[in-house]
Write a structure and sequence with these properties.
It is a single chain. By secondary structure, this protein is mainly alpha-helical. Helix content is 81%, strand content 0%. The protein is built from six helices and no strands. The mean pLDDT is 93.
Length: 159
């Protein structure tokens, strides 16, 4: 799923910049990339994760290496929905709102990454949903978002 969302993000950025009539300044390019990362990798991914954890809870639990039937899974679903909505709102709300979304999502993802490591070390959980794509994305997406946000803010300040 993550590779599909990453491909959609990249395709959206390329098409947006190809058809964008505005000057391709560093600030503009960083803004467009960050917008797509926020809208797709946070927004759309959050909504998809909500659907998975809320409506296909047993399948997702097994994919992660959890026992099916945990009532906490619905709480994870709602947290994903909250960040998903925030990511989608980045399409229409700009400015410091983006900073807040990047900070909140980074804390959530890095906390999840810590949980994946803990589950691996403590429980030897090698399920693909624990030590696989989700683990790497939980680390990489915040790094990308923070780097893009810093680049965007610096480029805007220097323009």
């Amino acid at each position: 799923m993550y590779s599909i969302l990453a491909a959609v993000t990249l395709a959206g950025v390329v098409l947006h910049l190809a058809f964008d009539r505005r000057e391709k300044t560093l600030a503009r390019v960083a803004e467009v990339i960050l917008l797509y990362v926020l809208a797709i990798m946070v927004g759309l991914n959050g909504v998809i994760a909500f659907i998975g954890h809320a409506f296909f809870a047993n399948q997702i639990a097994l994919f992660i290496g959890w026992m099916p039937g945990s009532p906490f899974q619905f709480e994870i679903a709602v947290a994903n929905l909250a960040f998903g909505v925030l990511g989608l709102l980045c399409i229409v709300i700009r400015g410091q709102f983006w900073t807040a979304v990047v900070i909140g999502q980074s804390i959530f993802y890095w906390g999840a990454a810590y949980g994946h490591i803990h589950q691996y070390l403590l429980l030897k959980d090698t399920a693909p949903g624990n030590i696989g794509g989700p683990f790497y994305m939980d680390i990489a997406v915040p790094v990308v978002m923070i780097a893009l946000l810093i680049a965007y803010r610096k480029a805007v300040k220097n323009s």
